[in-house]
Write a structure and sequence with these properties.
Length: 232
């Protein structure tokens, strides 16, 4: 699916995962942070307006809910503690607004420390990670002691991520990382790409095979908090 978040700074695009038949959707906090209106287009082509239920900036997770939805097909949540390096995975999302794009790869590493901005107050304004925005900026994050895609700002959080070489590009944020049993094992959240200045071009580079996902067990442990609206 594709999530379109409109704010005073412009529009951004991300992805999400349907977890209940009545329209609960998990995505990254940075996809919807600061949004004044959220529109969700499902793979069926139907579009809904969504409301934020709860956010957890510390884990870069958010729960939104579609208005008037019922009978939706839901994702099966797997067990990320069983994931091993070398496991084959598939990523689904809306890179560059291309809804329903599927890429494949393997799990490259486990427990990578990824540091990201907590909200949209960083120096890159409303740059939204792999969320696509008119300005072409990408949401900043740190990995291996280096900053990518701009300054992370003052308010940051660090989490343990799954690393994958499945191709991730702007718009994949919040989408599913799936194992060969069709189970969600992670929520795609960040990717390595040189900043536009480092790349020497007017826009950030695409995927170079270094993507990161929030383990699904982190999501499962956080669902009650998100549903309670804590942190939002």
């Amino acid at each position: 699916m594709e999530i379109g978040a409109a704010s005073s700074a412009g529009n951004s695009t991300g992805s999400g995962v349907v977890i209940t038949e009545d329209g609960e959707i998990v995505t990254n906090n940075h996809v919807i942070s600061g949004a004044q209106q959220i529109q969700v287009t499902l793979s069926t082509g139907r579009t809904y307006t969504a409301d934020v239920v709860g956010t957890d900036p510390d884990k870069d997770l958010a729960l939104i809910k579609l208005r008037g939805a019922s009978g939706l097909k839901t994702a099966a949540l797997g067990d990320s503690s069983q994931v091993k390096v070398g496991d084959e995975v598939v990523a689904i999302g809306s890179p560059e607004g291309l809804t329903g794009t599927v890429t494949s790869g393997i799990i490259s590493a486990l427990d990578r420390d990824v540091t990201v901005a907590k909200d949209d107050s960083g120096s890159s304004g409303q740059g939204q990670g792999q969320g696509r925005q008119g300005g072409g900026q990408q949401w900043p994050f740190e990995f291996g002691g280096q900053q990518f895609n701009g300054d992370t700002g003052e308010e940051t959080t660090t989490y343990k991520a799954l690393q994958t070489d499945a191709s991730l590009n702007p718009g994949n944020s919040g989408g599913a990382l799936i194992n060969m049993n069709g189970e969600i094992i992670g929520i795609n959240s960040a990717m390595y790409a040189p900043s536009s200045s480092a790349a020497g071009s007017g826009s950030a580079a695409g995927s170079v095979g270094l993507g990161f996902a929030i383990p699904v067990n982190t999501l499962k442990a956080d669902l009650d908090t998100l549903r309670a609206g804590d942190g939002s």
